Fold each of these.
Amino acid sequence: MEKRDGFGSKLGILAAAAGSAIGLGNIWKFPYITGVNGGGAFLIVYLICIALVGVTIMLCEFTIGRRAQMNPIGAFKKLSKGGPWWIVGLSGVLCAFSILSFYAVVAGWVFAYVSRAITGSLIKVGADQIGGLFGGLISSTGEPIFWAFVVLVLTALIIVGGIQKGIEKYSKILMPILLVLLVILMIRSVTLPGASKGLEFLFKPDFSKLTPTGVLEALGHAFFSLSLGMGTMITYGSYISKKENLPSMALQVSIADTVIALMAGIVIFPAVFAFGLEPGSGPGLIFVTLPPVFQSMPLGGVFETLFFTLIGIAALTSTISILEVVVAFVCENYNMARKKATIMIAAITFFFSVLCSLSLGTMSDFTIFGLGFFDLFDALSSKILLPGGGLLIAIFVGWVMKKEDVLDEVTNGGEIEFGLFNAFMFVTKYLAPILIAIVFAYSLGLLKL
Ligand code: PHE
């Protein structure tokens, strides 16, 4: 049998897993849904979801993947020995399409901004016109579709390169640069006049602003941001060497992801208030708040170009991890060549991306359950498939896999110490499934607190 490709070094795995987790979820989505849901109180619920459920499910996914050495569908089949559990893997593969379709569109907006930043035209747009520019971009037909296409082509090229030479190589260089840039921007943002109001909005909880759907959104976003519930971390887990410490890796990735989201919040909200913008303005938030920040700083145009480029790259390290789930499945299950599978899957995704993009313009009247394609795919993945997948993954590790096998995998066959194993099993078996079920019931109105 051909040797399975895998990650070459510990730093490489961490960069790739963190690269998957850190993306538009942190920099685009987290600030805007925090804004829509009223700030601080939402943040607290989000942090609780990460700490109680997120880290645990990440470890569950790594465990399933490394134990089975397979793509998610194959992994569930192998470890459950004949049960219907492979359906969880299948739902992950479908979810991958659902996420990638709208994600590529948003990543495309970022690239459209990069091209404008490079030519220097973006830095000239005043704070009062930037909203119009963004609205015009996303509702037009050709430009966003062109950039979504570019995103999918780049993603496919890296995927064809394989694990070590593709995913790992790029993640290792690019993630640290993003971090440095965020620090610079944070400093600029909190020193803007009126910045403190933004920090207050983000860190001072007002629970009267929190709604049941807000709680589900926080949970769903914890899954989205950590790339959980659809098999990404199962797939990456299957490439992790048997020597690595899975629990510490799950913890490190979760912390890195959360820190980046908080940093993005500290960049965005002070700027929102300093420039008199609306924190609850929705998906356009970073696209309309950041340009005025850059205008207010020396070398703004250079920083602007660099920053949007890095967000674009952070998005790519996530899109590759989404596409990889489907590619790994198709290659292993149908014995197809990696290149052929990648091209085919990227082409199908592109078709859905076109629908998502058009739903914000020409096709805005076409809705399903009252939602256009863009919102539909977003809601379907974040509010249903990811938390639902997470629930089943927890049940699988807690109740279906043998406890000895789980222990064996997380301790590398007893080689390493995992003092919190019993706590981990408790959360996996009871706490996580119950919490997720409660949030579902609460947000559907079946339960009132
Ligand atoms: N975690 C990624 C982000 O925050 C998105 C993602 C979701 C990636 C699900 C993989 C799987 O941008």
Amino acid sequence: MNTAIIVAAGKGSRFGGSVPKQFLSLGDKPLILHTLEKFNLCELIGEIILVLAEDKIDHFASLGYESEKGLKLVAGGETRAESVFMGLKAVDSEAEIVVVHDGARPFVSVEEISETVKVAKKMGAACLVAPINETVKEVKEGKIVKTIDRVRLRRALTPQAFRFEILLRAFEGVKLDESITDECMLVERLGIEIFVVEGSQKNIKITTPEDWALAEAFLEEEKCSESGSVTIFTDLKRIKS
Ligand code: CTP
Ligand code: MG
């Protein structure tokens, strides 16, 4: 059995507003329900743990979302890493692979989840990544120091998946402050090899208000492909170009 920990206990300070971004309505439902639905649809996931701010647990429950996989609601911490750790403590002891995902990434695909789980099952640790399309510079005191060769660079996305015991070991005795921005950082410290899975540029993390327009466009595109009108959409794009 494989478990997903979805962390959604953040305040969304860069996004702003009075309602945390994960509870804003994207199309017909709150953003977090889009994310949950992807994990619900993934056959390789048997248990879902949703980490929420303690004062948002009742609000989430009032949304009436149900999953036949047995959704566990857990109170998170002050930092993302603390929230993951709270989720980790609730994982079923029988779990083989634990997959960690940002609640703020609703456009993860079911295939990305499956592939990451499969690689972790075979190799022990897997991380979804995407290439960097811009030229990257190192900057010091307002001036460019050098250009970094981007060919070997990747952006770390989520999901990131690990054998349960590896992830538990990675969190042992670690100060879970803001500097811990993903799970791979901790697993790297153990000297364990982490295999990459190429992810999609669509798997964005909704971070600032600018991301919202993109999210709405991606949602529209998802709806088009579900309803089978993707051909028309592609044709339109071709006509435009
Ligand atoms: N997260 C969490 N617990 C925290 C902080 C973050 O569960 N204490 C979650 C967020 O809800 C989000 C994911 O981790 O789904 C990635 O974090 P980020 O995009 O940074 O979201 P926020 O921390 O909410 O935003 P900000 O940093 O702008 O405040
Ligand atoms: Mg944050």
